[in-house]
Automatic annotation (TrEMBL):
It holds the Pfam family C1_2. This is DC1 domain-containing protein. Residues 28-72, 192-242 form the DC1 domain. It comes from the Eukaryota. Keywords: Repeat.
Length: 262
């Protein structure tokens, strides 16, 4: 079927085209049925789940201006998840989650602790899966950028300067630490990659690519977050994943050496 302009979208999205083969899809994340459409890149539309820009195949509710990436539509499941942000209890999907405890942003859909004391929006649940366990702080730290946080961003607890780029955040203590204030190596040799990796604090993107993955854990990563990067072949990985591998190898070597001595 040829693409056609959808009049119900009105003047807000006059160039949104519909693929007539997929109409009226039900999804647990939204009260109304969703239609399958194609969004041109020139339209600035955010996904209602992960809050990243959408272009290409999309599920939409024109009445509510609710949009989902095709991948978000497929990946979102009405189930319990176990997340490193809140290891005490599993989190279950909720259609009206409210304020996310990680980024303090109001979200229509997300996950909530069964005890009702912790909420996580879809964006944080998807992209903040790898934390950093470092001797500088007792709890696991998670990477953020300023635009991840809704409202005022607290100063770094180490240098007391503003956090205006990538930084680590402890949710339990509600504190932020600049990545530069944490003693982590600028260059590292990973056991899972043949080339040396370099710490990049700026956005790591690739032309024509919409989704980005950590090559170490194979989970989605936010391209705006700092990461370790191979300049030769685009291998990119979460900081926590790379340093976790290094610590594991060193500890294994130490254990082996001690076993020989005994």
């Amino acid at each position: 079927m040829c693409a056609q302009t959808i009049p119900s979208i009105g003047n807000h999205f006059p160039n949104l085209n519909d693929n007539g083969s997929k109409v009226g899809f039900s999804h647990f994340s939204h009260d109304h049925k969703l239609r399958f459409a194609f969004i041109p890149k020139k339209l600035e539309v955010d996904c209602s789940a992960c809050w990243l820009l959408i272009s290409g195949p999309t599920y939409c509710c024109y009445t509510c201006y609710f949009f989902l990436h095709e991948s978000c539509f497929d990946e979102l499941k009405p189930q319990y998840i176990q997340h490193p942000f809140h290891i005490q209890h599993p989190l279950h999907f909720k259609a009206r989650v409210g304020i996310c405890n990680a980024c303090t942003t109001f979200s229509d859909i997300g996950y909530e602790c069964a005890e009702g004391d912790f909420k996580l929006d879809i964006k944080c649940a998807k992209y903040l899966t790898s934390g950093l366990q470092h001797k500088c702080h007792e709890h696991k730290l998670f990477c953020f950028v300023v635009e991840d946080i809704n409202g005022h961003v607290e100063c770094c607890k180490h240098c007391y300067q503003m956090c205006n780029a990538s930084f680590y955040r402890c949710l339990e203590c509600d504190l932020n630490i600049h990545i530069e204030c944490i003693p982590i190596p600028k260059n590292v040799k990973s056991v899972c990659h043949v080339h040396p990796l370099t710490l990049i604090l700026d956005s790591i993107t690739k032309k024509g690519q919409d989704e980005y993955y950590c090559h170490a854990c194979e989970n989605l990563r936010n391209p705006k977050h700092a990461a370790y990067y191979c300049k030769k072949c685009y291998y990119t990985a979460h900081i926590g994943c790379v340093l976790g591998e290094v610590r594991f190898v060193l500890q294994s070597f130490l254990d082996f050496a001690l076993s020989i001595d005994h």
